[in-house]
């Protein structure tokens, strides 16, 4: 599944977040800039950094990539020893700058900046409740609901206010909250989205994925636990628990596709587990073939695993164009097929006359898979066997992933055999749920997109995108 | 006093506002765009338009001139029969987009958009009160305080809520408030800032100045009264009074400098009254001279009036460069004097060997007047007599004008004779307060910047800029 | 006649040029930047500066205003003691960057940079001649022909080469030519376009108009003579004559409209002569009226002169919007009349019930005059008498002014009475040719646009725009 | 060797070219746009397209990537059935737009557009010759010399003129030349740079690499021969030979690094031959190790080949950040190491405790290799063995590749053992020249950068960059 192209109708991650409480004299805004850059795959719509110098919070946010939103001038302007940053994914392409994060507010006792990765499922009713008690809202985000709740309970102290707010909200949320004086990391009781603790010299930091720690030279300490609140202040690090149930249900799709391959989440290397999925896939769906070809880049580790187990050589049969930009002049009707080749070209020399196993991580609508199979056949491939390193995606996600509706999900409406026919592959094999789970030592996953078993009762599908009610352009 | 140059340290108007409730099928966003363009002199930092289609409010705002913020695409996107727009003046040049107006919020019963011209003097204490009762703030503007108050009282109905909110706030405010269904114009009990009612075909509209009505072909109906609320809805126009005192104290500086000369405010033509100030000035401070030279453009009408009474010919002794842009490469030290000439050039042929009367509307710091006098002398002027069509500016404004602090106001710290010496003029005459007031038939002005007599008790100077507490860049 | 608006179909000047040979250690690129800024009214399409350090020529050019094309970085990069700059007017709005000037070339002996104001009438045949002898062309400009000719004759020395080239070319040209080592100013034998010599400290410079000297603090020495070549090198200043006939035919329209009012050309103040035209106009076409209203800004001096002689008061009946930008959202059909008001508003208070004399410098197509008369009537003017401070424009210009074709010139196809009717004025008076010429002490003008008497035989109208043969976009 | 980063001091290809003579009604400008996009790796500085409609040539060029320079508007403006396009690599980052190609000129008989890939070694003397006979130059490119020569001989007909010009110029050149009526492809007698003939439906086209044919759905016909001229006109295809010697010396570095892996050049698949280099490298420099890690992306095929022969597993030990943009905020001194990690991250889980073979295609200065080895060690690699799939680069290229000077080439100044020490690898193996050549069936390569054996006598190193003599910024 390709990620870069904005027009591509794949699955999209919601957000990436980072925070740091510095005691080593680092330039925290700059550090956050690099960390957000490493988390860019989690969101390309907008980027923002807020910084506290102990008294006041300054911030800058804007639409675009991290490298587009920030320059030397605004990084220099953001002075302070605590920082929180956020990247957000692209929905419409229109200017939704008022929804950019972190959201920064002034309230009775000072300032709050909040960065959120995830999605609430009861934000609408909470917002109505808050509106009934007089609150007003300036964005279309569920994140603004969280901040209202925290302020509502603030008289009880920050940690207690967070706990009380967390008891009201339902859904997926990994949060970084900054006050004038401290920074907090929070994970929902199911721990749906990743968030880890790192150490940069002697300064604690939080990041959605460990790849953000790598870039700044920080060490990964551990994953935040489900239902945990971590507070970093001048008194050091403290940890709190606000939900004892801790029924972990970590999004398994982070391992399959979303997370960067070089991240380590919950002590599991994303890359290694993808390779392992490929190995299991080879055991479950072996085939007599000449070459294992990955769909770059996300299919590579599974393809290598498949190759290892099957003994069939691995080869780059599809080559990516490195200069894929955001804005292409669209081909006219006659040359429509150019659109696919703008991103990928087939290595004819390599696939000609061969039986190919094409390995990808998932099929969403099936259109790209269909084109790739056709391209391989046109280049002379004798057979094309499609292998997917996860079960069919059948259900929408309510917890922070932008999935199409159920009726657009090919896995939801067609049998594997029908999908195979539609795509035009000689055979099609999806890794089984058992096979997928067996790649991990531990348990505790949300597999809702495959089997509809969500850790929390989800609303009717129609009510999914709750906050579309006013828009900026 | 020149206006265009952003770096110029003159006095700056706070804002311009416009609103319309259309029943004639006009494209309200486009109409608002043109109206804001005519009000551009009241604010060049940001521009915004919000539109209601009866159900929902959409908006677009951004930093820059109206023509920079809006294009065909976003105008087309803003559909609806009610609209409100705002232009805001430039403070720092940094990106303060979160303070752009109209502010649009969602609350219990729907949406509110609010555009504000003026300045509150008790916003800080009101904000603290609101924060104490749990409100959170996302901008640095006093306008956000007003919207919180209105929502707080909304259960009493919109008009009552506005009345109750207005009773809490103190200061200068001309407001246009839009709900999903109606639009409201409000003026503070002193009527400090302008706001008028217009009629475009059969549709009522509101504008800071009548020049905005001219551009869209609307007729000026009347000025909104101090302490008046006008409501335009599908039931037509209704008017309410929320403060019976009505002690009008209209900002006299709007007539002297801020308003566009082609506007008519409170039945008084701005241009004509400026000409009259020039006539009175000629009577108060006659001088034997050869040529009356205005400081373009604001000194022109007074210069013409002075010429008329004195019988001394009027002539353009200073010529403006029409291509003055925002960004100049700064001259090096050696060529510093170029900076002045970038904007104005002396007509040597015209002033050589002559006794000149230079007419301007005000002196703020005195540095520009000093340079102009020197330029005229260098070009061969035999004498330069400076005439100002208003009394010395001695006190800061707390009601929506961005004045320098008292210690930077030359009128505050030096006698007229000392100012004359500093500027290097042969003589200097300021129009007297009596002379100024005699230009008007009616009374009811705020003359605080000249005599410190403010219509409302003002805070200590230090506490003037209340909401500087968090900043975006 | 208004100038700022790019869409306005008035007459447009071709170019402005400036050059300096510095011996005082000035930053020549910066000096040229300011000088070009003062000449911006002569061309807004592109700007360019070339600098020689004695060995090599560096340059930068681009599309846009001087302040848009240049920034601190590229000014700093242009080091050298000789500089030449150019501004060019906007033709199509498309990117014609390859036609920007100065044109810089390398040839046998070194480098040449050439800046040209004017228009050749035999460029096409010269280009064919040069092509026949093997020359190739990379731009669509007649300027490239001149540079080819100079290089062709270069073996005879630079001055001789210029002389020989000048003998070949016909038309209007004021040139500044820079080699590695020297700078040259050249005027055609009729001296059609302006070019003057200035002195900045001890360094000689050349400029299209003296206003460019004013901004940099240079003194005006004298106008370059028709058929004169001036050379500035390390050996000082030398002057040469290449055409003894010297039948001066200076473009009279520079005085009427094109030149900046604060310039002095051929010892004549542009502003003063415009005022004089107004005086003569009042004598030729007196009228019983209440107010003299100029079309701002170009009609102002003539209106003041008319007022002076007639004794009728002068007043600003039309007010310009200072924020007229380049890009407006176009009004829809219903609101078409907004387009005019974007730039000018009528001062209703001032014109109501009055007999108005509207003074402008020229009528090209008549559409703007018609709208202005209508606006004045709508505002309540009792009578509107139009007075033009020049004779009717009847013929196209072949010498550097962008005029519409003869059939679009209203003066060419209609009688004065018919024009008056079309425009809707109560009376219409054009200054007579005799009246116009009597404003000047000296003779020697090109009045071709009024009477078709060109100083050189001109081609058929169809062949006017010779070099449209290949285009960049 | 990484390619994307503009600041990276690797080797840079000069240019990519494409041309088409369409008889099928294709939109040639759009086709050229896509083809140039596929050739973007050959040059990122500027892009240009010229189109002939049989009578006239229109063109558009600009600085930046193909997707930045062209938009729907300018593509639509370029109408015609013959087209030629060019991409150029980035030298300084400054605006060298006057050197963008194709160069388009008007000459006696019509128009010429010329796109050039390569580098002439006698351009300087030819330019002097041309200047002596009166030619003038407006760019700093050797390409302008070629066009002057062709025009000089044009009286003999186009093919003859090309032949005569080609006999004068020495060096590397693959050219596409377009007249109003025909298009020509030309290769130098040594065939140093690639250029192939393709067929899109029934229309012939030319491209630097076959990957450009793939994207537009054209078929690869054959490589142009050394010393061949192909003419496509309304009379179809004709081929000419202008140099019988045909001593082919194709740049072997195209196969090693420059060409896109999915291209086929001279019947050799670039990808396959790189894999073969890896296989030979494994035979020449075997090592006991646990994992073969490529430097992405260029080291991948050789790493796969090495893995295949050695039996050691292949794995992605270094992960690229997909969002590497052009403009990064530079890390401060303390965090300098971040710069490397912005582009590549080590997969610690994968390399920890392992003996690694790191495979790359070349070492230029050695600094990147050194950092990568250090990163692998820091991540826990037990041993790091560096294998390079080509011999040491010891000599600069004079034929179209931008190499650093000899003294900056580490291969030129240090022994393999010294390089190994400097880089910090446990062992270092370069593929031998024999090994490299044995990967190909045919002969006829330029291996000058490895052994100094150039096919043509080259100038002294100092005189390499001949045309730096005047610059735009």
From TrEMBL, chains A, B, C, D:
Amino acids binding Mg(2+): 298, 360-361
All copies of domain Glutamine amidotransferase type-2, residue ranges: 15-235
Record-annotated active site: 15 (nucleophile)
GO biological process: 'de novo' IMP biosynthetic process; purine nucleobase biosynthetic process
Assigned EC number: 2.4.2.14
Gene3D superfamilies membership: 3.40.50.2020, Glutamine Phosphoribosylpyrophosphate, subunit 1, domain 1
Listed cofactors: Mg(2+); [4Fe-4S] cluster
Pfam families membership: GATase_6, Pribosyltran
Binding site for [4Fe-4S] cluster: 251, 397, 446, 449
Cofactor annotation comment: Binds 1 Mg(2+) ion per subunit. Binds 1 [4Fe-4S] cluster per subunit.
Annotated catalysed reactions: 5-phospho-beta-D-ribosylamine + L-glutamate + diphosphate = 5-phospho-alpha-D-ribose 1-diphosphate + L-glutamine + H2O
Keyword list, A-Z: 4Fe-4S, Glutamine amidotransferase, Glycosyltransferase, Iron, Iron-sulfur, Magnesium, Metal-binding, Purine biosynthesis, Transferase
HAMAP family per record: PurF
Cited function: Catalyzes the formation of phosphoribosylamine from phosphoribosylpyrophosphate (PRPP) and glutamine.
Family the entry assigns: In the C-terminal section; belongs to the purine/pyrimidine phosphoribosyltransferase family.
NCBIfam families assigned to the protein according to its UniProt record, in alphabetical order: purF
Protein name per Swiss-Prot or TrEMBL: Amidophosphoribosyltransferase
């Amino acid at each position: 599944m390709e990620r870069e192209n904005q027009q591509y109708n794949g699955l999209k991650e919601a957000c990436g977040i980072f925070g740091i409480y510095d005691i080593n004299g680092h330039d925290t805004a700059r550090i956050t800039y690099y960390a957000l850059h490493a988390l860019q795959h989690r969101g390309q719509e907008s980027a923002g950094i807020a910084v506290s110098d102990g008294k006041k919070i300054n911030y800058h946010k804007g639409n675009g990539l991290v490298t587009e939103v920030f320059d030397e001038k605004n990084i220099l302007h953001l002075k302070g020893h605590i920082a929180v940053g956020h990247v957000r994914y692209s929905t419409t392409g229109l200017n939704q700058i008022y929804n950019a994060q972190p959201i920064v507010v002034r309230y009775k006792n000072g300032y709050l900046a909040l960065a959120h990765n995830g999605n609430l499922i009861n934000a609408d009713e909470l917002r109505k409740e808050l509106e009934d008690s007089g609150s007003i809202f300036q964005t279309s985000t569920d994140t603004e609901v969280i901040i209202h709740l925290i302020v509502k309970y603030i008289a009880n102290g920050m940690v207690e206010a967070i706990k009380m707010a967390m008891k009201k909200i339902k859904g997926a949320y990994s949060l970084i909250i900054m006050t004038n004086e401290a920074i907090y990391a929070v994970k929902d009781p199911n721990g749906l989205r990743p968030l880890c603790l790192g150490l940069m010299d002697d300064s604690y930091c939080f990041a959605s994925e460990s790849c953000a720690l790598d870039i700044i030279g920080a060490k990964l300490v551990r994953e935040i636990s489900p239902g945990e609140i971590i507070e970093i202040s001048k008194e050091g690090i403290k940890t709190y628990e606000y939900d004892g149930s801790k029924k972990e249900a970590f999004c398994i799709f982070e391992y399959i596709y979303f997370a960067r391959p070089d991240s380590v989440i919950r002590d599991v290397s994303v890359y290694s587990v993808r390779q392992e999925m490929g190995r299991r896939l080879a055991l479950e769906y072996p085939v007599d073939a000449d070459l294992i070809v990955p769909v770059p880049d996300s299919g590579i580790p599974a393809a290598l695993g498949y190759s290892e187990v099957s003994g069939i050589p691995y080869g780059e049969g599809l080559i990516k164009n490195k200069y894929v930009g955001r804005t292409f002049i669209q081909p006219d009707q006659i040359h429509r097929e150019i659109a696919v080749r703008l991103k990928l070209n087939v290595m004819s020399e390599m696939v000609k006359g061969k039986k190919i196993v094409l390995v990808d991580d998932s099929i969403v609508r099936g259109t790209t898979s269909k084109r790739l199979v056709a391209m391989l056949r046109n280049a002379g491939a004798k057979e094309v066997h499609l292998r997917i390193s996860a079960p069919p995606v059948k259900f929408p996600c309510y917890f922070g992933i932008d999935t199409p509706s159920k009726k657009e999900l090919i896995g939801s409406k067609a049998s594997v055999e029908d999908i195979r026919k539609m795509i035009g592959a000689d055979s099609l094999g999806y890794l089984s749920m058992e096979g997928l789970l067996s790649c991990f030592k531990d348990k505790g996953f949300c597999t809702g997109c495959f089997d509809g078993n969500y850790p929390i009762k989800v609303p009717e599908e129609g009510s999914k995108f709750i906050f579309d009610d006013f828009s900026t352009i």
